[in-house]
Amino acid sequence: MQVSHKGDSVKMIDHTGKVFAIRLSFAAGIVMLLIKWYAYSITGSSAILSDAIESVVHIVGVAFAVYSLWLSLKPADVSHLYGHEKISYFSAGVEGGLIVLAGAYIIFVSVKRLIFGIELTNLDQGTYFTIGAAVINLFLGSYLVWKGKRSNSLILIANGKHVLTDSWTSFGVVAGLCLTLLTGWLPFDPIVAIIAAANILWTGGKLIRQSAAGLMDEASSDVGNTLRKVLDAETEKRGLGYHQLRYRESGNSLWIEFHLLFPKGTLLDDAHLTATEIEHLIKNTFNKDVNIVTHLESSYKHDEIHKEELH
């Protein structure tokens, strides 16, 4: 038996909010890119260049995220019986890969300037533009992560973390520009750019790791502990057993399956009602779409029939 959770009207409202958030991120990314490239054009700063490159990566990443979000919201069809939500993990991996490439390029440019010389102009103006971009991205990134967690959207969370990384990079750039202005020592600029790039590489690596875990159906210990806690309590209270518990997360959805063991002579109608009650208890525990497949079995001669140990 299989049951799903959430009403269609709630889903529609939630999906509309996701689409608005990702479009807002795309529009803001274009504005940030224009601001940062202008700041770089008037200063020639490696640190500001690193910030501007991060914005280029952000726009490319969010463009793919827009497509991924659209695809993830499509219902299941004859070719994709479990829906299209796994694109969320692929989207996070693409964005993480772009972030890593950006970080590597920033380090290359900064080291090159340390070796062959540094020329900077209009640092005060560039600093003001960079501060403005950092503050805007801080609020935007925080909103995207909040919205993503609230709606269980990996796409929004990944994009929000990318925007926050962009913001921290900008604040780091501002610190480097201020040090350069105060001391007059030009190498502060590329050195800060390298530090910012290292942070970018770390963030991109984490997104790639998260993407790989999702695509490989890596089990979440938190989800597993919560499931076992509910099943242990409910089966013990009802005099039942269970085994073959498996679960996986697919974007915004959680798919669960397990076998319930009933005493000999239990009527099918009664077993079905009990299983349905346990399923609803499990679904109410998670703040996401939950799909459960329960296999009903008799505990009578179960080991002999299946030749396996009970869970």
**Name of the CATH homologous superfamily of the largest domain:** Cation efflux protein transmembrane domain
Major sheet description: 4 strands, mixed
CATH class of the largest domain: Mainly Alpha
The rounded Rg comes to 25 Å
Question: Poorly predicted ranges (pLDDT <50, ≥5 residues)?
Answer: 1-13
Oligomerization: single chain
Q: Topology as H/E string?
A: EHHHHHHHEEHEH
Total helices: the number is 9
Query: What structural category arises from helix and sheet content?
Result: alpha+beta
Account of the 3D structure:
This protein is an alpha+beta fold and 311 residues long. It has two domains: 7-215, Up-down Bundle (Alpha-lytic protease prodomain-like), CATH 1.20.1510; 221-306, Alpha-Beta Plaits (2-Layer Sandwich), CATH 3.30.70.1350. It is 70% helix and 10% strand. The protein contains nine helices and four strands; from the N terminus they run βαααααααββαβα. Strands 1-4-3-2 form a four-stranded mixed β-sheet, covered by helices on one side. Helix 3 packs parallel to helix 5. The radius of gyration is 25 Å and the shape is elongated. 40% of the residues are buried.
Comma- or semicolon-separated keywords:
Alpha-Beta Plaits, 70% helix, alpha+beta, 311 residues
